[in-house]
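Predict the holo structure. Ligand: 3-methyl-2-oxobutanoic acid.
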Amino acid sequence: MTDKMTVPGVVSRKGGRKLSMLTAYDAVLARLADASGVDMILVGDSLAMVGLGQPDTLAVGMDAMVHHTRAVSRGTERALVVGDMPFMSYQTCDEEAVRNAGRFLAEGRAGAIKLEGGARMLSRVRAIVAADIPVMGHIGLTPQSVAKLGGFKVQGKTAKAGRALVDEARLLEEAGCFSLVLEAVPAPIAQLITEAVSIPTIGIGAGPHCDGQVLVTHDVLGLFDRFTPRFVKRYAELGRAAVAAMEDFRKEVEEGTFPAEEHCFDMPAAEIEKLKD
Ligand code: KIV
């Protein structure tokens, strides 16, 4: 096992070897992601859409997120586990944000939290960081703002909007974020942000210039096909393989070829004889 990834370890990779982050919501996928050598495992609120079948990320709460984070932490030995603050767990006030962020570390055993939003979240970031809880920022397309944004759309497409994102990134760094997710922003804007801040940027649909990349594991493995954003690359088709395996199981059950002798437990012949008494 290589060394446990830490927040300072992530920060030290700015401009160096690229960082990789994948999502997980349970111990099984966490164990696989950890074995792959990725630097960070994000317990994303994408759990709502990918794991719970919701249409957006709004319908998952703190208890569920902490429950899943604890499972991921149990399955992770080396990567840094990052817990994603769900909708309405930090938007209301600093105190609630700090208390909920603390739950991710104390109960979920995460090493850091992530929250969405730029300038309007600075006081939340400062308050959480002041409680010694490392914060990963998230700007660009922030899925919890889907109602305001009118859908999952690329952000920062004009020079003015792009510059505003650069300013927000600087402010989040000043407020104490140790890294920043940039989601669905044009590659030139992600490059400007990456050059403007001294903390690592982790892109998803933000081009190749970021200090790292994150994807949703179910997308990477071909396990989620309700929709596939342009920025996703599928590295495997495990969904198809899973359906084929399940079909084989069903057919063998129907034909009576499963279970075979090697799947059954025997008992001493003398005991079987006694059953005939
Ligand atoms: O919830 C999530 O999975 C995320 C990533 C897509 C960055 O926020």
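The domain at 7-236 is CATH 3.20.20.60 (TIM Barrel). Residues 23, 42, 44-46, 84, 181, 183, 204, 214, 216 surround 3-methyl-2-oxobutanoic acid (CB under 6 Å).
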